[in-house]
Amino acid sequence: MKKLIGLTAAVIFLMALSAYADLVVGQTLMRQKKYAEAREEFQKDIGNLKGAEAVRIQLLIASTYDREKKCPEARREYEKVLEMEGATDVQKAQALIETGRILWREEKNTEGARQAFSKILQIEGAGSTYKGRAQLGLATAYWVDRNYEETTKEAIKVSAIEGADPSTKSMALLYAARGYKAMKNYPEALKFYRDFTASEKRINYLNEGRLAIGEICMQDEKYAEAREEFSKIIQAEGAPENYKSSAQFFIAQSYLAEKNNAEALKEYRKLAELPYASPSQKKEAKARISQLEKE
Predict the structure, then answer these.
(1) pLDDT above 90 covers what percent of the chain?
(2) Which residue ranges make up each domain of the chain?
(3) 7-52 pLDDT tens trace
(4) How far is CA 5 from CA 8, 81, 268, in A?
(5) What is the four-CA torsion angle of 109, 110, 112, 114, rounded to 10 degrees?
(6) b/e for 160-192, b at 16 or more Cβ within 10 A?
(7) Cβ neighbours of residue 43 closer than 8 Å, sequence gap 6 or more
(8) Percent share of the chain, pLDDT over 70
(9) Which CATH class is domain 201-295?
């Protein structure tokens, strides 16, 4: 009997060792972008594993399809996690996050995405990271649908999720600001854009916020404040060229609105010389230069 128990234990140990070896090989192949081969390694031992360990492998299998941009297959494999015995709440939340992302971003199914994100919020042990991302996902899906009122409503809820990632909370501020701006509620939009730019570090998003603040200030005829925001964009290393040319265009426009023609002419000339200014911006700049030079 003791020999049988020892033999069983040895077999279990060897199976676990083999599964671990296949996992390491699979992860190495993933880093080499050999996703089909990685999938084969993961599939070798999933049948011999149970509970959270089996689910872990299932998530990796799904991710191989995801990285290959095989969205239907990836979603199918992520959805299998929800039916697997022993899946933890966090693993279910991970699978639902990826399912929701694929639904709205790749399959343009925003309603399906919202259903996936809503399920995460109902999972008690999903964790604040996934709950924050799910709440932001709801706002994002409504934004894609151009339902700006719901976008702001869902985005604002992210701030109430204690422990949500700072980057998630930051993006929620941006979506709230976008929603208010789209609804032409400029005072609220301005408040959220200022909160967003105060802490955001990602250059593209940061300069999107700065540009929006400048545009709102222009509408309020606060031209000096607007120029301050636009100048930050122009001076920012790595800022997108379309943001920089737009900022230069608005600076010129701000001086023109103040009837400061000398400064307007100077700034339009800068715009005309920008190699990355759009054709419409260059056309506008040349027309204004011609007009201002005659005055």
Answers:
(1) 82
(2) 201-295
(3) 444 333 334 444 455 567 777 888 888 898 889 988 887 888 889 9
(4) 5, 32, 85
(5) 170
(6) ebeebbebbbbbbbbbbbbbbbbeebbeebbeb
(7) 61
(8) 92
(9) mainly alpha
